[in-house]
Specification:
The structure holds two protein chains of two kinds. Chain A is mainly α. Helix content of chain A is 74%, strand content 1%. The longest helix of chain B has 34 residues. The chains are: A mainly alpha, B mainly alpha.
């Protein structure tokens, strides 16, 4: 087999490319893919006393389905995610549309920047800040009492409602960004054309704007699911100790029970929820790279 | 402007105001009551006083944690951006088999909750790597790498490739091509990626919480402060954390914005 200089160059080229990619790929393989697989593996080994069970079994999964405590946290997670998902998109879509279609072009960037600035509050700090707002003697209760709308303070903090507020606040900012990005790319002439052809405002929205903004909507939606399902902080700080979600039970297994096997099993369920959401949204997630 | 136009403008302004009140309510409250002259940060507001900031800045635990957070942020940002830069450069300039697969691998951590990354590292390496700042850095690079890669990868375009080739044809060595052509052309996205990675790491809690040893980062220490309930000192610490993130973000925004405007 003779090697022409061209072939040699192509091979050298390829070797160079692999060498450049290798450090990042190895890091992800070693510290992400391998650990994720290790979670799956560990979920099949029951913790027995101080040592690892010798043979793989479904014991952890049996425990998951036997103890209402675990199953309930799964359903709480799913329910919470559904509520947060719907409310966030219902708030973010109008806000993004308002900025994209009603705010003058020159001010849009500023408006968007202002809308997402508090996004950069650390999530521990953000949840604490909501605690301040929702406390029995916090800003909301004090204001409502002073306005005479309430006779005694409402219990707002340490409820699932508070968790929902904390999440929705965060995701409204996030989804506004992704939806706005999709909305500004829509060709305005399409909207005018539809109007000229006799479409009502509602028809323009459902037939043109909504379908064309779907990639942004789906991207926002997916991020909402990933973060809501996986966040420990927001429910822990704002929700108090009732209606525990999966991340809370996972941390509890690690910290109080030192049972990383059960934590791994619960993590598998968490990945399952995110995986299902991904499958549901995958078709709409195809974002063109142009 | 027509009457309906005016009405519409008023409506837009009203709706935006309402949205902004919701968005800024927590941060505004946090900031205001960090200046509160009283033991509990709730209305009615009294003050202002800088007492709580003074206490935060003289609290050894917070000051030490700030040092740890800066260390973790800077090192993890440098590692993530370097790795992402090399990978993006390699994938953008060469056609190699398995390109799609490598892209997917590098972006995969984005689709997984941070908690999983933390638990995974504990499960796989918990008995080998001691819980420490180094372990947190490893975790934060996992979180930041896909982000930095996503930002940098799209910035390597064909025009740059031709400039690199021209430099090579003119006799530049590989390292000269890199330092004189590639890196200067990528300066802005590299700075943006570094800043973004730093803020992410600076704010990150759960991975740091799971992998920390005796030297926790700032979010973990603030988490500890929350156990004492509402406290103006926590407000002050939280406000400072927020200001660092915002300043990093604004600095980048300005740098990138100025670059775009000729």
């Amino acid at each position: 087999m003779s090697t022409t200089p061209e072939k040699q160059r192509a091979r050298r080229d390829r070797r160079r490319a692999y060498a450049l990619v290798a450090p990042a790929a190895l890091w992800t393989l070693c510290f992400f893919l391998l650990p994720t697989l290790a979670i799956f593996r560990l979920s099949f080994f029951e913790k027995t006393g101080g040592t690892l069970a010798e043979t793989p079994s479904l014991a952890n999964y049996e425990r998951f389905f036997e103890q209402s405590y675990f199953i309930e946290s799964l359903w709480t997670t799913v329910g919470l995610t559904a509520i947060v998902f719907v409310l966030s998109l219902l708030l973010a879509y109008p806000l993004a549309a308002l900025i994209a279609f009603r705010v003058p072009q020159k001010l849009q960037r500023l408006c968007l920047m202002l809308a997402v600035l508090p996004f950069w509050t650390s999530y521990v700090v953000r949840s604490y800040a909501w605690l301040l707002v929702l406390a029995p003697n916090g800003v909301v209760n004090t204001t409502l009492l002073r306005m005479g709308l309430l006779s005694e303070p409402l219990t707002l903090s340490f409820t699932q409602g508070a968790t929902v507020v904390g999440f929705v606040h965060f995701f409204t900012m996030l989804a506004t960004l992704t939806i706005y990005a999709a909305l500004v790319r829509i060709d305005r002439r399409l909207l005018l054309a539809a109007r000229d052809l006799g479409a009502s405002g509602w028809q323009v929205f459902t037939r043109i704007v909504l379908p064309l903004s779907m990639p942004g909507l789906a991207a926002g939606a997916f991020l909402i699911v990933v973060f809501t399902v996986g966040d420990y902080i927001t429910p822990q700080i704002l929700g108090g100790n009732n209606d525990l979600v999966l991340p809370q039970t996972i941390i509890m297994q690690i910290q109080r029970r030192a049972d990383i096997h059960m934590a791994a099993t619960l993590s598998v369920f968490m990945m399952l929820v995110v995986g299902l959401a991904y499958l549901a949204l995958a078709r709409r997630l195809t974002v063109d790279r142009s | 402007m027509t009457r309906t136009g005016l009405g519409q403008t008023a409506l837009t302004v009203a709706a935006l105001t309402l949205a902004f009140v919701f968005i800024y309510l927590p941060v505004g409250t946090l900031l205001l009551f960090s200046l509160h002259d009283g033991r509990v940060p709730v209305p009615p507001f009294e003050g202002p006083t800088l007492e709580w900031y003074g206490r935060v800045l003289s609290d050894d635990r917070i000051v030490e944690a700030t040092g740890q957070s800066v260390l973790v942020g800077v090192v993890s940002a440098l590692i993530s951006v370097s790795l992402a830069f090399l990978a993006g450069w390699g994938l953008a300039r060469h056609r190699i088999p398995g390109k799609r697969l490598i892209e997917a691998l590098l972006l995969m951590p984005l689709a997984v909750s941070f908690l999983i990354v933390g638990v995974g590292l504990l499960v796989a390496f918990g008995s080998v790597i001691p819980k420490s700042v180094g372990f947190i850095i490893i975790g934060h690079v996992v979180l930041n790498l896909p982000l930095a890669f996503a930002i940098l990868y799209v910035q390597f375009d064909a025009t740059q490739g031709r400039l690199e080739q021209a430099a090579r044809d003119l006799g530049a060595r590989e390292w000269q091509v890199f330092t004189r052509v590639t890196l200067p052309l990528m300066r802005v996205p590299v700075i943006a990626a570094l800043a973004l990675c730093f803020t992410f790491s600076w704010d990150e809690f759960i991975v740091a919480f799971l992998l920390t040893g005796f030297d926790p980062t700032l979010p973990v220490v603030i988490w500890g402060l929350l156990r004492t309930g509402l406290d103006p000192q926590t407000n002050a610490a939280g406000t400072l954390v927020f200001l660092v993130s915002i300043m990093t973000f604004l600095a980048v925004e300005l740098a990138v914005f100025r670059k775009r405007k000729p």
